Amino acid sequence: MSRKEDKLKDENNDLKDQVEEAIDNAIDEVDENDESTQKQTSTKDGEFTEEEQLKEDLQKEKDKFLRLFAEFENYKRRTSKERLELFKTANQEVMTAMLPVMDDFDRALNELKKSGDENLLKGIELIHNKLKETLKAKGLERMEVEQGSDFDSEIHEAITQVPAPSDELKGKIVDVVEPGYKLGERIIRFPKVVTGK
């Protein structure tokens, strides 16, 4: 048995040597190809070597990736801002529909003050204040516009111009016909005013 084992060992060693030699030859061939590729310079036509071309392609892909990433970040930022804005003003339709009710309450209070019925006035004031506070808690805010304030076409809606009762009111607000309201930072109804000329 020892002769067979020795013979197998010799055959294994021969096979091992052949495999190592084949691997060494393959490595040498790859090294020679790499050296010849690196030694190549630009051709007469201005074309790049394969390595330079790959580097340029890699740089282009990196640039595309960075631009795409930046664009995606901007998109995320923009959509999150729009989503926050939507949540803030989601109830704008309801608030706009409630504004005529607030106007009616204001007119009713003015008429009840003229009538002199204190108990009725007190009851309506309680309901009016409750409605006003509820809408205020949801973000509705009345715009404060007074007689004598400067007229600003960006935030006021002029209905008409009348001769100013005094020189101080020329170009200023003489009367507020309908109050304006804001929902958060957005004006949902501009105050309707009369200006002096």
UniProtKB/TrEMBL annotation:
MF (Gene Ontology): adenyl-nucleotide exchange factor activity; protein homodimerization activity; protein-folding chaperone binding; unfolded protein binding
Region listing for Disordered, in residue ranges: 1-56
Annotated Basic and acidic residues bias: 1-19
Biased composition (Acidic residues): 20-35
Subcellular location field: Cytoplasm
Main location: cytoplasm
InterPro entries: GrpE, GrpE_CC, GrpE_head
Annotated signal peptide: none
Gene Ontology biological-process annotations: protein folding
UniProt KW keywords: Chaperone, Cytoplasm, Stress response
Keyword Cell division carried by entry: no
SUPFAM superfamilies found in the cross-reference section: Coiled-coil domain of nucleotide exchange factor GrpE, Head domain of nucleotide exchange factor GrpE
HAMAP family (alphabetical): GrpE (MF_01151)
Assembly and oligomerization: Homodimer.
Stated role: Participates actively in the response to hyperosmotic and heat shock by preventing the aggregation of stress-denatured proteins, in association with DnaK and GrpE. It is the nucleotide exchange factor for DnaK and may function as a thermosensor. Unfolded proteins bind initially to DnaJ; upon interaction with the DnaJ-bound protein, DnaK hydrolyzes its bound ATP, resulting in the formation of a stable complex. GrpE releases ADP from DnaK; ATP binding to DnaK triggers the release of the substrate protein, thus completing the reaction cycle.
Protein name according to UniProt: Protein GrpE
Lineage: Bacteria, Pseudomonadati, Bacteroidota, Flavobacteriia, Flavobacteriales
